[in-house]
């Protein structure tokens, strides 16, 4: 199959995403105002609490079995590698571009987490529906849906544990700096300049609301006190233990066990336990109506999320103070460095027998490295009320370029595995 034919096959699903995104952008305009700020917030809540959990649980329950999970064991490892490699490249980008403090968490989030769920649920079924696809017609749709569902499940856990923690720490750190700058007042009395704290900063003497726990705040106070008295020698293993304890306390378990994560647990529970699976999954199952209802509700997640994505891009058109160098750096990480390293990882895994000869599975593994930043980073910036305009600009340009990069990389990956 020629590269041009593969290019056309890869172009169709990308055009679908662009068209629906364009509709979302259009109905968010002030003249139409169907997806204004309040409407987006309400629809986003419905997607977060209803559509996404229904989508994840129904797809996993229907497509994941114990035998299929054994064959796909490398996918969670591959997704972990996308986070690790993306974070390392993001850290290098921050050092090279000297990214401002308030944007560092956002840059790390955009570089480390790709859109591992919704885009794959659009792209892979659309490719399988094409007559000239290189994966065949028999098992492409079934296997592709299973791969996309598992990618969505593992990606949701990674994003709401790792990326959420990074962005929350960064936002809290910047807010503390702003509060300290705003609360310090200089007054001159009797020829001397004194610095006092305003009334709003008296809370700093108590555990701050920005601190996830009192342990974290006490750790900060102890570190500052230790620094004032002089450096003390701490065993290396003790340092590691302290850092792990602090990191675990900073992880918000309520966000780790988000509705999507609960949907993942339910989906695995139904799919992997045979008696329950026979009771719910399948046209002849006694409780088949539960599965069909959940799948019916979950189908609304992908178009709704894509519409919200288009509406959120509207704010990016208004611009922000984010540097063009930072935006180009994020695109270089996500669309050049990560896909190239992804090819190396997947080919090495196949060479050592970690990945089978299934061409569609290899294609999905490679595609996970070439996806644009996860839209959940935008949701997090809105949640923390920090860096929203910068995030919108980054999403605008990265998703505009993704239309071309995803098509080219998808064509190249299909050619590589076929």
TrEMBL record:
One of its GO terms (cellular component) is membrane. One of its GO terms (biological process) is auxin-activated signaling pathway. Involved in cellular auxin homeostasis by regulating auxin metabolism. Regulates intracellular auxin accumulation at the endoplasmic reticulum and thus auxin availability for nuclear auxin signaling. The keyword Ligase does not apply. Belongs to the auxin efflux carrier (TC 2.A.69.2) family. GO terms for molecular function: transmembrane transporter activity. It comes from Vitis vinifera (Grape). It holds the Pfam family Mem_trans. Keywords: Auxin signaling pathway, Endoplasmic reticulum, Membrane, Transmembrane, Transmembrane helix, Transport. It comes from the Eukaryota. The chain crosses the membrane at residues 6-29, 41-61, 73-94, 106-127, 147-167, 256-274, 326-346, 352-371, 392-417. It is a multi-pass membrane protein. This is Protein PIN-likeS 1.
């Amino acid at each position: 199959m020629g590269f041009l034919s593969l290019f056309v096959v890869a172009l169709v699903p990308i055009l679908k995403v662009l068209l629906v995104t364009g509709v979302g952008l259009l109905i968010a305009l002030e003249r139409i105002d169907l997806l204004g700020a309040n409407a987006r917030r309400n629809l986003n809540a419905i997607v977060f609490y209803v559509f996404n959990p229904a989508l994840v649980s129904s797809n996993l329950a229907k497509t994941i079995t114990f035998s299929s999970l054994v064959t796909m064991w490398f996918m969670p490892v591959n997704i972990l590698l996308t986070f690790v490699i993306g974070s390392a490249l993001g850290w290098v980008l921050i050092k090279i571009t000297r990214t401002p403090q308030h944007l560092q968490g956002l840059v790390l989030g955009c570089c480390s987490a790709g859109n591992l769920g919704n885009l794959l649920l659009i792209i892979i079924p659309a490719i399988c529906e094409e007559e000239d696809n290189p994966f065949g017609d028999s098992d492409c749709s079934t296997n592709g849906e299973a791969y996309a569902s598992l990618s969505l499940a593992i990606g949701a856990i990674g994003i709401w544990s790792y990326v959420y923690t990074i962005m929350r720490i960064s936002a809290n750190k910047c807010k503390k700096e702003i509060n300290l700058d705003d609360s310090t007042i200089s007054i001159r009395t009797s020829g001397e300049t004194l610095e006092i704290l305003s009334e709003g900063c008296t809370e700093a003497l108590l555990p701050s609301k920005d601190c996830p726990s009192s342990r974290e705040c006490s750790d900060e106070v102890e570190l500052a006190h230790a620094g004032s008295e002089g450096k003390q020698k701490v065993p290396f293993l003790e340092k590691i233990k302290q850092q792990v304890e602090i990191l675990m306390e900073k992880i918000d378990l309520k966000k780790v066990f988000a509705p999507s994560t609960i949907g993942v647990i339910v989906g695995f529970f139904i799919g992997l336990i045979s008696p329950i699976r026979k009771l719910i999954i399948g046209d002849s199952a006694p409780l088949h109506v539960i599965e069909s209802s959940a799948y019916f509700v979950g189908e609304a997640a992908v178009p709704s999320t894509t519409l919200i994505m288009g509406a959120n891009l509207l704010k990016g058109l208004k611009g922000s103070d984010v540097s063009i160098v930072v935006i180009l750096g994020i695109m270089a990480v996500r669309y050049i460095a990560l896909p190239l390293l992804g090819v190396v990882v997947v080919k090495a895994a196949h060479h050592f027998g970690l990945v089978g000869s299934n061409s569609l599975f290899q294609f999905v593994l490679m595609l996970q490295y070439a996806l644009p930043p996860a839209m959940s980073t935008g949701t997090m910036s809105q949640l923390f009320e920090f860096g929203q305009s910068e995030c919108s600009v980054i999403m605008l340009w990265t998703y505009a370029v993704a239309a071309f990069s995803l098509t080219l990389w998808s064509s190249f990956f299909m050619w590589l595995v076929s």
